């Protein structure tokens, strides 16, 4: 593996490659951003309610490691899991598609 002075150096090297796909890169960044946003929302609501991860897991019919994984931004929850998680967190699950903002 090549030595790099910083993450910026590594990023510049990757961006300069002929096979670099900017759209794919941005899609990955957006997916990661959403996972972190989702994880933070779950954790914040759980703490707001004074619940442990185990409490949420029991309420949602999940296992504590499942809740931990979701709170760390890992895994991809199913629609059913999201509905059970919302119930456990005393929320209503709503899924919708929206048109992107006009530029």
From TrEMBL:
Any GO MF annotation of the entry: DNA binding
Domain HTH cro/C1-type: 42-96
InterPro entries: Cro/C1-type_HTH, Lambda_DNA-bd_dom_sf
CDD domains registered for this protein in UniProt: HTH_XRE
The name this protein goes by in its record: Helix-turn-helix transcriptional regulator
